[in-house]
Amino acid sequence: MPLVDLVPVAAAVMVMACMVAALLAFGPAHRESYAELEEEDTEVTTQLPAAGALEPAGHGTNGVRVAPFRGWRIAPERLRDLAGRYATPWDQGAGAWDGSAEETASVLRSWQRSGSLVREPDRAVYAYEQTGPHGSQRGLLAAVHLDSRLLPHAEVIPSRSDGICRVMEVGQLNLEPLLLGYSGNGSTAARLDAVTQDRAYAETLGSDGQRHRLWRITDRAVHAEIAAELNRVPALLADGHHRWIAARQHRRYCYAEGQGAGPWDYISGLLVDVRRSPMTLSPVHRVLPYVNPGAALDAAANRFRVTRLPGDLTEWLRVLRQNARHTIAFVVLTGHEAFLLIDPHPSFVSEELRRVPEPLRGMQLTVLHVALIEMLWGVPDSPEDIHYEPSPTKAMRQVQEFGGIAVLVAPPRQADFQHAAAAGLRLPHKATSFGPKPHPGLVLHLLNDR
Length: 450
Known about the structure:
This protein is α+β, with helices and mostly antiparallel strands. The chain is 34% helix and 21% strand. It is built from 14 helices and 21 strands. Strands 2, 5, 6, 7, 8, 9, 10, 11 and 12 form a nine-stranded mixed sheet that branches. Helix 1 (8-23) packs parallel to helix 14 (414-422) and helix 5 (158-171) crosses helix 8 (241-256). The longest helix has 16 residues, at 8-23. The protein is elongated, with a radius of gyration of 22 Å.
């Protein structure tokens, strides 16, 4: 099947988000070299196209409420040091909320005192653009009201969002911007096109080859024009479910303490018009650090057809994609070896998945988590026991260095999204990885600035 046949998967995400909204009440940590990336992720990713994207949701507050904010910008002399995507000391990717929130706050304040962070002179929204080997993207960086119509598509891990909420509470800052996809009338995208013809306000080249650029927009008339368009359209919450839940939780705490409306009503967001700047969709692989490889494969052999794979990671991913088109398929990595798991016994799947809603039973990830990881291997559903890694190369390296196994998965299929949407269900957490992700540190929105 050619790549073009996979494109509707991403379109179905947007369709699903619209349907979910009608049914739900709202309520990598080390520096990487560019050479590493050239040999790295050889997976097929698919784009989120304009066709089938979100349609306008009417007038009033059915859309996204955005506002300018007076942020804190990385000083130019320090910006050159931010080669890694997670080089800011208060945001170390997935591990940021596993450490000390107090230490995060301390480092942030020290950067403010030393001048490494500079207060912006006035309120602004920003045109943001990135280009490079991970793709190109242009969008609007703004403060997004938490009562906006943001459409989630995946579940979250409560302990993870609790940890982020603690960092927000103690550090008084928004972390990495949410990545939001919307379908607009083109007026905001046209404004961004015009602004980005001028010299960038801030710019940095990451060690992964991505160039990030930022432009300030301070004209109030332009702010009003942008707000008018975005206030009419919902946005898919493409990346940042845990940060979004944490921000809403933090706001509840603030209101419970009688603080009323304030900066905690907003969260940083990058809004991308997918008609003009398509996103990519990639799978998220699982690393199980405490699983014994031999025992896991022996147990799987009683329920799946297990075959040892020759070749290297590129070949293993090709075989995975080929098989996942027509059957349940995973690739298990054990150090320097790989094994293909396909064709689970029907009675095994039906028995273990009997408690799962029917629309989700055919999903690769549902079979993986419920039947294989939970029931067959007995792995607890906790962040310590299951790690989530978008990069297959990094997943393999983790196993080689620390042991355990990695399970490579294929992206969700179009039918998965359609069936979940029709039933008003969300996909399992970390079902997909949208991108490219925005840089987390170019300009910060703090929560103690009024």
